[in-house]
Amino acid sequence: MSQEKDYLQDLTDIRSMMERSTRFISLSGLSGVFIGVVALIGAGIAHWKVKQFFHELDTSYVDQGYPDYNMLFIHLTIIALSVLVIALLGGWYFTARKAKKQGQKVWTKASRQLLVNLFIPLSVGGVFCIAMYYHRLVGLIAPGMLIFYGLALVNSSKYTLNDIRYLGLLEIILGLAALFFYGYGLYFWLIGFGVLHIFYGISMYYKYDRKK
User: Fold this and answer.
1) CA–CA separation, 83 vs 40, rounded Å?
2) Which domain holds residue 183?
């Protein structure tokens, strides 16, 4: 009986070693929560800027000049890039902290494969969003971001926790739904990048992090 337990334990250890070599399993649930909170704050600021723009548009006179649409887009772009940078730095911090506690390295073959498979769809999505702005189809930018981000998560999920795949599928579904509600993309963006990240982050924290 003891030998059988030792054999099963050896199999478990071998499986764990193989999983660590092919998958980046140190992804922290707190990273998802942090990203979600930052996204909610960013969406709130963006919503305020859009409301301010249309208020100025409604109250402007011809002799005063109308508010500049391009400036609004620049402000929204700055907000989006700021959210992205802060979210990435925070996500990296919590993930690196978890990896250190587990005695694992952050920069491994699995993490490199994860990043490559993540950034290929994201890069294509970035070009898509630029093209939508170029053609003045700004209502398709938020759905496009959700769809390509979801594809990136699904594409990279084979190199990390399986939960990421389901998060990606939900992001894709949200993005597709947003295509049929033109002009409400910011609300779908808020749900996808904010609420879903917080929900999944908490779920992954209780599922994986608290066991460590």
Assistant:
1) 9
2) 29-211
Q: Give the chain's domain count.
A: 1
Asked if residue 56 belongs to a domain, the reply is yes
Task: State the CB neighbour count (10 A cutoff) for residue 51.
Answer: 10
Strands (DSSP E) found in 74-145: none
Instruction: Write the CB contacts of 25 (distance below 8 Å, at least 6 apart in sequence).
Output: 19, 160, 161, 208
The structure's pTM equals: 0.79
Residue 98 in domain: yes
Q: Are 196 and 167 in contact (CB under 8 A)?
A: yes
d(CA 151, CA 153): 5
Please report how the helices 109-134 and 141-156 are oriented relative to each other, as an axis angle in degrees rounded to 10. 160
d(CA 45, CA 122): 23
Has residue 60 been placed in a domain? yes
Q: Cα angle at 143 between 138 and 147, to 5 degrees?
A: 140
What secondary structure letter does DSSP report for 26? Answer: -
Q: Which of 156, 147, 157 is nearest to 179 (CA)?
A: 147
Q: What is the pLDDT of residues 167-205, one digit of tens each?
A: 999 999 999 999 999 888 888 989 999 999 999 889 888
Residue 150 scores a pLDDT above 50: yes
**Residue 7 lies inside a defined structural domain of this protein:** no
